[in-house]
Amino acid sequence: MPGVGLGHQVHHKFVVCGFNGPDPVVFCGSSNLALGGEENNGDNLLAIRDGDVATVFAIEALALVDHFQFLDRSSTAPLGKKSKAAAPASKTQLALSSGWFLGTTDKWVEAYFDPKDLHFVDRLLFA
Length: 127
Prior knowledge:
mainly alpha; 4 helices
């Protein structure tokens, strides 16, 4: 993701399959899903077949997407470069400048009804 810098990398290692279907499964562990780690490093990979666990992991995946989208929106520097822009004075100012502030109107719900926005998919998936 451009602009989030090298200090903001996803290290979570899980794959969710069919969390809202008849046979949900989560694959997680130390594995990077690469043959080298499996053969040489003793990486592990667990398969958890439980709908509730799969749902929790799916929610975590969405939270990660939202979190890194927020970091991307709040960053002004290209990947790997330090920003010369002044840091916002507060978290509230950062949220406002990124467009991620709930506010006191119902404008924040618009994304959940826009078919071109991922929040729309979230709403349909979890409703």
